[in-house]
Amino acid sequence: MAKEKKLVEAITSMEDDFAQWYTDVVLKADLIDYTSVKGCMVIKPAGYAIWENIQSELDRRFKETGVENVYLPMFIPESLLQKEKDHVEGFAPEVAWVTQGGLEPLQERLCVRPTSETLFCDLYAREIHSHRDLPKVFNQWCSVVRWEKTTRPFLRSREFLWQEGHTAHATAQEAEERTIQMLNVYADFCEEVLAIPVIKGRKTDKEKFAGAEATYTIESLMHDGKALQSGTSHNFGDGFAKAFGIQYTDKDNTLKYVYQTSWGMTTRMIGALIMVHGDNSGLKLPPRIAPVQLMIVPIRQDAPGVLDKAAELEAALKAAGVRVKTDVSEKSPGWKFSEQEMRGIPLRAELGPKDLEKGQAVLVRRDTREKYIVPFEEIPAKAAKLLEEIQQNMYETALAHRNAHTYDVTSYEEFKTTINEKPGFIRAMWCGCQECEDKIKEDTAATARCIPFEQEQISGTCVCCGKPAKKMVYWGRAY
Amino acid sequence: MAKEKKLVEAITSMEDDFAQWYTDVVLKADLIDYTSVKGCMVIKPAGYAIWENIQSELDRRFKETGVENVYLPMFIPESLLQKEKDHVEGFAPEVAWVTQGGLEPLQERLCVRPTSETLFCDLYAREIHSHRDLPKVFNQWCSVVRWEKTTRPFLRSREFLWQEGHTAHATAQEAEERTIQMLNVYADFCEEVLAIPVIKGRKTDKEKFAGAEATYTIESLMHDGKALQSGTSHNFGDGFAKAFGIQYTDKDNTLKYVYQTSWGMTTRMIGALIMVHGDNSGLKLPPRIAPVQLMIVPIRQDAPGVLDKAAELEAALKAAGVRVKTDVSEKSPGWKFSEQEMRGIPLRAELGPKDLEKGQAVLVRRDTREKYIVPFEEIPAKAAKLLEEIQQNMYETALAHRNAHTYDVTSYEEFKTTINEKPGFIRAMWCGCQECEDKIKEDTAATARCIPFEQEQISGTCVCCGKPAKKMVYWGRAY
Lengths: 479, 479
Hints:
With 479 residues, chain A is α+β, with helices and mostly antiparallel strands. The first copy, chain A, is built from 15 helices and 23 strands.
C-alpha cells in the first residue's frame, strides 16, 4: 500500500500548483523524458501513441478535402528566409543556425526550419506556371525548431512536431475559403476527437502570424483558466507571391499572382489534453484519441482461470473494435489501478476469481469512477457504449467548465479584477485600436485571444478606452 | 501527337545512359523537385505517397513484433556524439553543425542527427534500472542529415527520411535474435511488398556500421547491374552500453550491461523501386506499394455517358478495395496513357463511347502491356486478380534478372573481366582478410556486399590471394 500511495502522492495537486501538477503528470504518465539538449524532449511510447492517433485522424480529414502530403528540406538558406520582410522579422530572432557541414564552414548559413512558408514559396515559384497548375494543396508532417528561452514539455519546446499545410490558389476568395475550411477541420477535430470545445475567430493584427494578411485561430480554455491557442490558419493574400514571384498565366492569358494560405497544428495539443481533462489522479484521455481504451486488470492473476478469461475477454473486446490491453505485470492490482488512472486510460475491467465464479467483470470509468458489474457476454457491447458516453461526458464537462469560466465584462476596473480573481476567458468590447490592446496586455498580462466569428454585443463601448466599439473580443492570459 | 511524343522522348533510354534515365524518371514521374539547398530535395505528392505506403506497411510489421514508436530530438550535443569512439569517427566528418541558437552563439555545438544511437543510449541510461525495464524495443520515423559530397535523389541526399529502431536487451542472445528478426522483416517487406528480391547476409568488418559488433544487410540488384544496400540491422553487443553506462540489476541482484541493436530503412527504397522495376516508359510500381493501382482513362470524355460510367466504375473498384482514380483532365487520351505509364500505375482502364455500347472496358497492364476486354460487371474482380498477377510477375522478373546477372567466379582474372563486362553480382570465395578486400576494391571498385547466410562452395580458394577460403561472398559495385 505504501508503494501505491507513492504513485498517487507523486503528483502535486492541481489546486496547489497547477504548473507543477502539469509537469508531474507529463512525467508520471510516462509521456516524455527530458534530454541532454535543453528545451528538447523525448516523446515516449505513451506520448507518441497519442500523437500517432492525432496524426491519423487529422490526416484522414485533410485528405478528404484534397490535401496531398509532401516533404520539404529541414534547412532554409538565410537569403531565402529573408525574402518576405515581415516573415523574417518574426522568425529570425528565434531560429537555430547551421554554419558548418562536414568539415567545411558553409558559404551561406542555413536555418533549421521554424516553419516552411519560404520553402513552399520557392517550390511554388518553380512549379506553378498555368491556371492548370492550381490549386496546390500541400501539407507536411515534420518537426520544426524555434529557439525559445523558456520551455515546457509539449507547450513550448525548442523542437516540436507538427503539420504545416501550404496552399496556392488562383483567387483571393478561394484562398479565404480554404483558410476557413481548414480552421473548421481543426475545430471539428478538437471537439469531436479531443473533446475540447473551442472558440473560432480571427486574431487581431497585433497577434497575427508574421507575413499573414489574416490569421484565424481556435482557442481553448485550460483547467487553470488560461487560454491555449490550439490551431491557426493563415490567409497570406498575395504578399508572399509578390515577394517570391509566384505567378501563373490565367485563362485570359494574363499573368497573375497566386493567393496563399498556411495552417498548422502541433504536439502542444497533447498538452491541451492534459490541461483540459486531467485531474489529481493524472491524465484523462478521451476514448477516441486514447491509444489504449480499456485496461483489463486481473485480480489474483495466479488463481486458476483468471488469465485465461482475461485473454478471452481481450479477444472479444478487440473483435468489437475496442483498443484493449491486459496488465499482466507483477504489480499489485491497486498499483495497476493507479497506473491505469495516471495514464488516462478511459475504462478498466477488473476481473478476479470471484468475478469468474459469477461470470462477470467490473467495469470502472476513468471520468466519473462509476462502476458497472457486467456479465461476460455483455462486456464488449457495454464497453463500446461506455466509451461513447465517456467521450460525450468529457466534452460536456470541458464545455461546462469553459462556460463557467467565461465572464462578460463592461468596465476596465471589472476587467482587471476579473482577470486576477477569476481566471478564464473575458468577453469584452474593443474599439479596434492597438493602443488599447497594448494597454490591456501591459496592465493585465491578458491578450486578445480572438475576435470570435459568433459576435455578441456585450456593451456599446471599448472596455479599455470607452470609445464606441463594435467588436467583441475573447481576452485571456495564455500559454 | 507531338506533345505525347515529347513526354516519352523526355526520358533518356536506360541503355544509353542509366544515370540520366534515373534522373529523368525521378523528375518526369513527378516524384521530386530540386531545391535551393544543395543535396536536399522536395519529395512531391507522387513520391511521398509511396513513402507513406512504405511507412504504413513497415510500421504494421514492426508493431506485430512489439516495437513501440517514440520521438527523440534532432540535435546531438558534440560531447554526447563523442562518447563511443568508433561511432564518432564514422560520423563526425559528415554531420551538419548548429552553432547559433536565436541571437546567441551556443556554448556547445549541436550536430543534426546523422543517426540516433547516442541519443537512444542517453535515454536508456536514464530509463533502464532493472531487468523489469527490459527489453526496450523503440523505433522512430524521422529525417536525418549526412553532409554528402555527391548526391542523387533518394539514393544519396544530405537529408533523407528513414526509420531507426533501437533496442536494449538483457542478453547477447536476445539482441542477436532481434537483429536477425528485423533483418527478416525488411527482407519479407522488400520481397512481398516492393517485389524486390534480396540477398540476406552479414557485412564484412570493413563494411560494418561504425560502432557495431556485426552488421546484417539485405542487398538487391538494380537494373544496371549495380548493387543497392537496402536495409541494415546492427548488433552492438555491449559496446555502447559500456560507453554510456547502461546497466540493469538482474534477478540475481548483480549489475549487468545491456546488449543493443539498431536497424534502419530509408527513402532510398524509392530509388530501388525505380531502378529494379522501371523501363524506358518510366516508373513501374508493384501494386502493393502503388498509391494509385488503377487509372481510369476516359476516351472522348465529352461523349454522353462516358464520365458517368467512369464514376460508376471507380466506385465499384473502390468497393472492391482497389486504389483507383479517374483522369478527367483536359489532356488527350494518348497523353494520359503516357502519364499513367510514366508514373508507374500498374493498371489502366480505357473507356470510350464504343466500350459503353458494348458494356465493356479495356484493361491494360503496365508490366506486360497486355490488354483485356472485360465486361463492366467483371471489372472489379478482374482488376483485383490482375493486380495480384502483376505483383507476382514483377517479383519474378526482378528475380530472373538478378539470377541472370549473378556470376560465379573462381579466378581473379575472371573477376576483373566479369565486373567490367557483365555488371551484376559476383559470387566468389574469400579468405577473410581485409587486404584482399581492399585490393579488390582498389582494382575493380567492387565491394563485399555481404557474406550471405546461404553459403555455397564456389571453389576452395580465395578469389584474390588464392589461399584456402571457406566464405562465399557477394561482390558488386554499389550505389
